[in-house]
C-alpha cells in the first residue's frame, strides 16, 4: 500500500480561542498547478465565520512530492489530515482537481462531511487538455533560466494568456540567490496527468453538496445536470454567468456570497 503524505496546511480564523469554539472548520483544496496561496484573499473573508484550513495537495505548494499521484491517494492524504486533527463534520471547498479529491473523499467518508462545495468540476471523465501547459513548463530549463521574466518568455511560446502564465509561474521560488526551483512536481504531473482527468466511480453520494460552475467554462455543462442530480442526491448547481474556470479569482464577491448562503 502506498503511504499517505503529511500535507502542509495553514489555519486562518483561530486567533481568538473563545470565539473559535463557535466556529466550524472549513477546508479549501486548490486545483491542478495551484496551491493554498491562491485562496488567501477569500480565506480571510471566510475566516470571519469559520476556522479555515488552506491545504496543499501532494506534489503542489509546500506539501511533499511523491512518485505516486491519483485521486485515491489524494483523498487518503486528506483523510489522514482530518483524522490527525481529530475533526469531523467538516465543511470543504474543492476547486477543479481539488473538487475531484473531495468527491472521492466523500465517497469513502460521507460521515465526516457536513457540507461540500465543488467548484467547476464534476465526477466525470474529461478530455486531455493540459498538453500545452505541460510542454511549456517542461521547456523552462532552470539551469539557464534565472529570472521569472525569462521563464515567462519561454512559457509565452506555449501559453498565450498572461493570467494563466502568471498563475503557473507563482510556483517558482528561489532556493538560493540566482537559482529558481518549482514547488509543483512537474515530472510526476507530466507523467500522471491522465490521473487528473479520469472519472470518480461511485453509486451515489448523499452529502449536502453545492456545485458552483462558471458560465463561460465548459467543465460543467447543462447536459451534465441530470447525472449530477442522480449521483449527488442532496445537491444543487449554481452558475456564475460572467466567470470562467477560476471562479474564485474571477468573481470573488459572488462566489463568496454563494458559498456563505449555502453553508449558513
Helix and strand arrangement:
Blueprint lengths: L8 E4 L4 H4 L3 E6 L10 H7 L3 E6 L15 H15 L4 E6 L1 H12 L4 E7 L11 H9 L8 H8 L6 H8 L2 E5 L2 E4 L3 H6 L2 H4 L10 E7 L10 H7 L3 E6 L6 H4 L1 H12 L1
Helix pairs in contact: 3-4
How would you concisely characterize the structure shown here?
Helices cover 36% and strands 19% of the residues.
Question: What's the CATH architecture of the largest domain?
Answer: 3-Layer(aba) Sandwich
Largest sheet: 7 strands, mixed
What fold name stands as the CATH topology of the largest domain? Rossmann fold
Radius of gyration: 18 Å
The CATH class of the largest domain? Alpha Beta
Q: State mean pLDDT (0 to 100 scale).
A: 94
* Beta-strand fraction estimate: 15-25%
Q: How many β-strands, per DSSP?
A: 9
State the helix count. 12
Give the SSE order as H and E letters. EHEHEHEHEHHHEEHHEHEHH
Shape: globular
Number of domains: 2
Task: State the share of residues found in helices, binned by percent.
Answer: 25-40%
Amino acid at each position: 500500500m502506498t503511504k499517505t503524505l503529511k500535507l502542509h496546511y495553514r489555519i486562518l480564523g483561530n486567533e481568538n480561542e473563545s470565539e473559535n469554539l463557535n466556529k466550524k472548520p472549513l477546508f479549501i483544496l486548490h486545483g491542478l498547478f495551484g496551491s493554498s496561496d491562491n485562496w488567501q484573499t477569500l480565506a480571510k473573508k471566510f475566516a470571519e465565520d469559520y476556522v479555515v484550513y488552506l491545504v496543499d495537495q501532494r506534489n503542489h505548494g509546500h506539501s511533499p512530492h511523491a512518485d505516486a499521484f491519483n485521486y485515491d491517494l489524494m483523498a487518503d492524504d486528506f483523510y489522514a489530515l482530518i483524522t490527525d486533527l481529530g475533526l469531523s463534520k467538516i465543511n470543504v471547498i474543492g476547486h477543479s482537481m481539488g473538487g475531484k479529491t473531495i468527491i472521492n473523499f466523500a465517497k469513502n467518508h460521507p460521515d465526516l462531511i457536513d457540507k461540500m462545495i465543488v467548484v467547476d468540476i464534476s465526477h466525470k471523465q474529461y478530455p486531455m487538455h493540459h498538453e500545452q501547459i505541460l510542454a511549456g513548463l517542461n521547456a523552462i530549463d532552470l539551469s539557464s533560466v534565472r529570472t521569472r521574466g525569462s521563464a515567462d518568455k519561454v512559457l509565452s511560446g506555449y501559453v498565450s494568456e498572461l493570467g494563466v502564465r502568471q498563475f503557473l509561474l507563482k510556483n517558482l521560488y528561489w532556493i538560493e540567490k540566482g537559482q529558481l526551483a518549482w514547488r509543483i512536481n512537474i515530472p510526476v504531473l507530466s507523467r500522471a496527468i491522465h490521473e487528473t482527468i479520469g472519472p470518480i466511480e461511485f453509486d451515489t453520494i448523499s452529502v449536502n453538496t453545492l456545485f458552483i460552475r462558471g458560465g463561460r467554462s465548459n467543465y460543467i455543462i447543462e447536459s451534465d445536470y441530470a447525472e449530477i442530480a442522480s449521483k449527488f442526491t442532496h445537491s444543487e448547481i449554481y452558475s456564475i454567468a460572467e466567470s470562467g474556470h477560476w471562479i474564485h479569482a474571477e468573481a470573488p464577491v459572488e462566489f463568496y456570497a454563494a458559498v456563505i448562503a449555502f453553508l449558513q
